Amino acid sequence: MDRKPLFGVAYSKSFPEVINSMRIKDITNKLKDPNLANVKVEELAFDVGFNSTSSFYVAFKKIVKITPREFQRKMLHDML
């Protein structure tokens, strides 16, 4: 039995899209953390499971609508 269509129906997204959404949620939490402000965004992307920086940047911009660096600056600025 092929489970892929069932997954797509249950989540209305493909499996990679669901995984990327979860990874982006993880990295947005890390980007909000002032203790991680000096860690490179690319390093955080690899930590949450992305295997390439290009796929990370595309997924992040698609979901969050701004770049990771812009997101981090905005979040850290809002904390002040």
Structure commentary:
The chain has a single domain, classed as Homeodomain-like (Arc Repressor Mutant, subunit A). It is built from 5 helices and no strands. The longest helix has 18 residues. The termini are far apart. It holds the Pfam family HTH_18.
Q: Summarize model confidence as the mean pLDDT.
A: 88
Classified by CATH, the class is Mainly Alpha
Radius of gyration: 14 Å
What is the CATH superfamily?
Homeodomain-like
The level of helicity is: over 70%
Low-confidence stretches: none
Secondary-structure element series = HHHHH
Largest sheet at a glance? none
Number of helices, where a helix is a run of at least 4 consecutive DSSP H or I residues? 5
Q: What would the CATH topology be?
A: Arc Repressor Mutant, subunit A
CATH level-two architecture: Orthogonal Bundle
Give the overall shape, derived from the CA principal axes. Answer: elongated
Which structural class fits the helix and strand makeup?
mainly alpha
The tally of beta strands, per DSSP, is 0
Beta-strand content: under 5%
Distance linking N and C termini: 53 Å
The tally of domains stands at: 1
Protein name: HTH araC/xylS-type domain-containing protein
Pfam family, one: HTH_18
Keywords: DNA-binding, Transcription, Transcription regulation
Organism: Winogradskyella haliclonae
